[in-house]
Amino acid sequence: MSIMLKFDPIPSEETEPSDLGPVSSKEKEKVPTPTLERLTTYLRCVIDLGASGMETVSSAQIEEHTGISAAQFRKDLSYFGEFGKPGVGYNVPDLESRIARILRIHQMQPIILIGAGNLGSALLRYPGLEEHRFHIVASFDTAPNKIGKRLQDMDIVDFSRLREINSALKARMAILAVPALAAQGAADSAIESGVRAILNFAPTLLRVPSHVIVRNVSFVQELAVLSYHLAQSDSEDYS
Amino acid sequence: MSIMLKFDPIPSEETEPSDLGPVSSKEKEKVPTPTLERLTTYLRCVIDLGASGMETVSSAQIEEHTGISAAQFRKDLSYFGEFGKPGVGYNVPDLESRIARILRIHQMQPIILIGAGNLGSALLRYPGLEEHRFHIVASFDTAPNKIGKRLQDMDIVDFSRLREINSALKARMAILAVPALAAQGAADSAIESGVRAILNFAPTLLRVPSHVIVRNVSFVQELAVLSYHLAQSDSEDYS
DNA sequence: TAGATTGTTAATCGATTAACAATC
DNA sequence: TAGATTGTTAATCGATTAACAATC
Question: A127 and A185, same structural domain?
Fold first, then answer.
């Protein structure tokens, strides 16, 4: 008799909701990455509209300002609930704060910077980060001629002290702006110090535990895609 | 009797090849953007393998080094012809030169830089660009305290001279590293001077003629996506 | 020849677009 | 109420994955 079986002999596909308590009754639908990427664009847009005094915005106006279609915008938001009023549109300040909250940039996010070379110091001085509440709280390098120097209003710290320092700072995001050969080692140390999300500028595959997220940025890749299309449109000129 | 029918009476979907002359008999299949983006990763990989003396590589080994699946690699290459030998693999130097040629980075690509601030000067000093034969041939800015200063081995030139200068240089790619409010104007001037591909670092929608290609880079976007996933994995910890 | 690995086709998966009932 | 605009469903489109015949 199956009544004896405390556990289902045929494992069900769906895991039982279990007792998550009152949290999120809505079954978590996975949000597509392109949707997440567009969220920053919407946020930027509503911040600007808000600054210009606009109180309400329609999806059609969002399309006009961002180049992303109204349908796409509505679909993207739908992953996170209801935001607007039919016939009216979206409240600008409300939309801003809700998107910021989804991305967890409604409050300051501490980030550590590894690699204080050209790119690293440019990022440190880039005002866009602070505007979006990303705050670089420490920067590390291995070069003796850099260690101890001040950059913005921070000392550049010896990379070997990363773990010690981040045990106090508890930053969970790191920007990796080091040469390719140093990237894996830098990532390993960062992860050991508690980092769980890495923005990697080195053209290298980082091997990380499954609980760590990596995103790669490559200028060369961007230029190469442009270069390809440029050549394509040249050859079309002959047709 | 079907023997009479020289042509299928039901018109076929495919358009007739028409007389494109001897150029590209293979009908141009549109290459997906993700494929183009991965091409740089493959190139980087085969350059490294070549430097380490490897002569032949299989798609399985590419997967091992890049994290991109062997099937994906083969599918990606298939848009551009046949590259390997069944049972053997791909010749490393050959693969390198063919990918470089597809991306048109087998020969030097002149680029102009607009905006010689933190980010702009970091890009100018970034060795990866030259390694991939992207060569910044001029840099422009509007700030009087920057104009005339030397950066790498180049003078920073007054932005108002962009058109004049690029009529000689004939660069068709531009990197835009200016504040958001200056971006559209900078793009307009660049396009007027002959630029047809723009790498835009400003968080702004650029409005450009249809023959001009734009790619946008946003650090904030990348960090925001990381931030979202970080928050997600936190909430999973409670389950 | 036997084993390995390609290039390609078909099946799957996922994202975008279009359309519209619900509702302000 | 009539007009506008949302949120969502269904249809379309496109990219990835899996499988395998071809071939070295």
Answer: yes
The two structure tokens encoding residue A74: 């509505």
What is the chain B residue with the closest CA to A48? B204
Whether residues B145 and B57 share a domain: the answer is no
Judgement on whether residues B185 and B123 belong to the same structural domain of the protein: yes
Dist CA B227 CA A236 (whole Å): 42
Q: Tell whether A192 is covered by a domain.
A: yes
Residues A70-86, buried b or exposed e (16+ Cβ, 10 A)? eebbeebbeebeebbee
Mean pLDDT for the stretch of residues B7-22: 34
* Per-residue confidence (pLDDT) for residue A18, from 0 to 100: 35
Separation between the CA of B232 and the C1’ of D7 (whole angstroms): 24
Domain carrying residue A44? 33-102
B144 CA to D8 C1', in Å?
A: 54
Contacts of A122 (CB under 8 A, 6+ apart): B118, B119, B121, B122
Whole-prediction pTM: 0.89
What residues pair up with B110 in beta bridges, in sequence order? B135
Starting from the edge strand earliest in sequence, which strands make up the sheet with B56-57, in order?
B56-57, B89-91, B84-85
On whether both A114 and A187 belong to a single domain, the answer is yes
Distance between CA atoms of A158 and A139, rounded to whole angstroms?
9
A133 touches B at CB < 8 Å: no
Q: Strands of B126-226 (E only): list them.
A: 134-141, 150-151, 154-158, 173-176, 197-200, 213-216
B2 pLDDT above the threshold of 50: no
Domain count, chain B: 2
Evaluate the CA torsion angle B184, A32, B119, A96 in order and state its sign: positive
Residue B180 lies in a domain: yes
Report angle CA B46, B49, B51 to the nearest 5 degrees: 110
- The pLDDT of residue B233 is 87
pLDDT band at A153 (very low <50, low <70, confident <90, very high): confident
